[in-house]
Amino acid sequence: MDWLLILIALVAIYAISAYFIYRKKLWTDHIIFYGPIMAIKTARVKFFDKFTAVRSFFKVYGTVGVIVVIIVSVFMTVMLFVSIRYTLIVRPEPTGIYEPQNILLLPGINDYVPSTFAVWFAFFLTIVVHEFGHAILCRVEEIKVKGMGVLLAVIPIGFFVEPDEEELEKTKGMPKVRMFGAGITNNLVVGFSCFVLLILLFGIVVPATQPAIHGIYQGYPADNASVPQGSVVTAINGIPVASRADVSTLLNTTKPGDKITLTA
């Protein structure tokens, strides 16, 4: 309930602020509205011009990206049809991964996508990388970028770049295709890079030799003390432990009713 009240308060503050700015026409050079959604933009986008110094590279990058996007799109379309066919034949119960909210990969809504800092950071990074791809290829293909900004609806929900519509309309063929495909290309490259980095980092992971807490009984002291599952036990009654054998030895020396203090 507390979180609900906080959310309602934030929405109310946002709505009042947005309405006041809209009615008073404040900061019109930097604040625009898309319906009820407020957007903050800037025209300082000259740094995208620096990418024109390697125009040849980005044209090859964009062309390869278009080919990859087409292949991935075809693959995803086939997988979608196979998934729909499986669903129609098997007709699984709408529980677990088949629940309606789990169709959308939104943090906090999907049961399997937690609303954590790491997830939200990845969410925003994906959008930024996507939009920067469009902006970079706009300049590479000699399309002017008028501005960029962020969409706000209590919290940032998206980013955007604003190409010159007249120049964009005049652009035809592969230059235009490369520009539109650059966002997805960037997402694929960053996603693949993160996957490779994750695999490389596995090499420096060292398993803990100390005992870990795999389960906690509800209503018992550990649960009442809010000990998180997966915690590593480092000491019992102030005596350091380094293995499960140490834990067993110390517990066997205690008597029924003795108080046991875990350090985790």
List keywords for this structure.
264 residues; four-stranded antiparallel beta sheet; three-stranded antiparallel beta sheet; 7 strands
Compile the SSE list and pairings:
Elements: H1 2-24, E1 31-34, E2 37-42, H2 55-90, H3 117-140, E3 145-153, E4 155-163, H4 165-170, H5 174-201, H6 221-224, E5 235-236, E6 239-240, H7 244-252, E7 262-263
Antiparallel strand pairs: 1-2, 2-3, 3-4, 5-6, 5-7
Percent helix range? 40-55%
By secondary-structure content and strand pairing, the structural class works out as: alpha+beta
Number of helices: 7
Task: Provide the spatial order of strands within the biggest beta sheet.
Answer: 1-2-3-4
Q: Assess the beta-strand content as a share of residues.
A: 5-15%
Strands, count:
7
How is the biggest beta sheet arranged?
A: 4 strands, antiparallel
How far is the N terminus from the C terminus? Answer: 31 Å
Radius of gyration: 27 Å
Mean model confidence by pLDDT: 83
The domain tally reads 2
| SSE string | HEEHHEEHHHEEHE
Q: Mind explaining what this structure looks like?
A:
This protein is of the alpha+beta class and 264 residues long. It folds into 2 domains: 26-203, no CATH class; 221-263, no CATH class. Helices cover 49% and strands 13% of the residues. The protein has 7 helices and 7 strands. It has a 4-stranded antiparallel sheet with strand order 1-2-3-4. Helix 2 (55-90) packs across helix 5 (174-201) and helix 3 runs antiparallel to helix 5. The longest helix has 36 residues, at 55-90. The radius of gyration is 27 Å and the shape is extended. The two termini are 31 Å apart.
